[in-house]
Design a protein that fits this description.
The protein is mainly alpha-helical. The chain is built from eight helices and no strands. The chain has one domain. Helix 2 runs antiparallel to helix 7, helix 5 packs across helix 7 and helix 7 crosses helix 8. The longest helix is centred in the middle third of the chain and has 23 residues. The N terminus and C terminus are likely disordered.
Length: 184
């Protein structure tokens, strides 16, 4: 998950709403998905490579890169599909391993492995992969905004929130639809 000191504590409401949007509309708003994963990746990269920069400057740089990613998604879809999948998979694999209690010393190796898996998945099964990855990233953002990251039950909540996003985006659950249908 995102570092609470980095984005979560400073922008919990924005992260929460972005997470909800990705959970419910990630499939329809592919450009937003690419922009969000570009923002997350570039924000963490800027903080690691340029630690002397202020938090505001790092956010501004990440925002510009995220916006560029969203524009790329609109204009160069095939490249953006692979890039979005790579960044999402690269972000998620280390986070999922961390939630599962597996320690890792080779964060970049996990990032690359997850990135390749995400890019391949997006290239081979775009619609399905977009639903899965946007649900996972959305769940991550929601948990981060709620500051549930390091708690014992966060993996269960992560799976439940991501599953709800997947079911909603795939049309298996719809708001306002009840189990009882009126008979004419």
């Amino acid at each position: 998950m995102l570092d609470p000191g980095a984005i979560g504590l400073k922008m919990p409401l924005a992260g929460f709403f972005l997470g909800i949007i990705l959970l419910t509309m990630g499939r329809r708003l592919f450009w937003l998905f690419v922009g969000v994963v570009g923002f997350i990746f570039s924000f963490h990269l800027v903080l690691r490579l340029l630690p002397h920069l202020s938090h505001s400057t790092a956010l501004a740089i990440a925002l510009v890169i995220g916006l560029a990613g969203a524009l790329l998604a609109v204009s160069l879809q095939k490249i953006a599909i692979a890039a979005g999948g790579f960044l999402a998979g690269g972000h998620l694999l280390p986070q999922i391993m961390k939630m599962a209690g597996m320690t890792h010393q080779h964060h970049w190796a996990l990032f690359i492995i997850g990135g390749i898996a995400g890019a391949v998945l997006m290239s081979l099964a775009f619609g399905f992969a977009l639903i899965v990855l946007s649900s996972l990233i959305g769940a991550d953002l929601v948990l981060q905004a709620l500051h549930i990251g390091g708690r014992r039950f966060s993996p269960i909540l992560f799976v439940l929130i991501a599953a709800a996003g997947f079911l909603f985006q795939s049309g298996l659950i719809k708001p306002g639809r009840s189990g009882n249908r009126a008979r004419n």
